[in-house]
């Protein structure tokens, strides 16, 4: 079945970020969420790495919803984070 789904802006942003982070399509994430909500997918049978980690209580679910953050520091142009870690003054 095909359908249109209108989402609030914050949900849309979180869905896009989750799809980018996991490499899954937005449709796949929504289908999975609906299947779990409608009890068509067993919550006790985790299928992904994150679900298995949650089931094993290795990680806890997020306490706050997804939000964009601003970087606190900026590296000088032409410098990578690897350059910042590979300093001579560290022991």
Q: Can you tell me about this structure?
A:
There is one protein chain. With 91 residues, the protein is mainly alpha-helical. It is built from four helices and no strands. The N and C termini lie far apart (60 Å). The relative contact order is 0.09. The model has no long low-confidence stretch (mean pLDDT 79).
Uncertain segments: none
* CA-atom Rg in angstroms: 19 Å
Please tally the β strands and state the result: 0
Q: Assign an overall shape.
A: elongated
Total helical elements: 4
Q: Taking all residues together, what is the mean pLDDT?
A: 79
Range of helix content: 40-55%
Strand content: under 5%
What string, H for helix and E for strand, traces the elements in order?
HHHH
End-to-end CA span = 60 Å
Class by alpha and beta content? mainly alpha
Q: Could you give a short account of the major beta sheet?
A: none
Write the layout of secondary structure elements.
Elements: H1 9-22, H2 26-37, H3 49-55, H4 81-85
Descriptive terms for the model:
91 residues, mainly alpha, 42% helix, elongated
In short:
This protein is mainly α and 91 residues long.
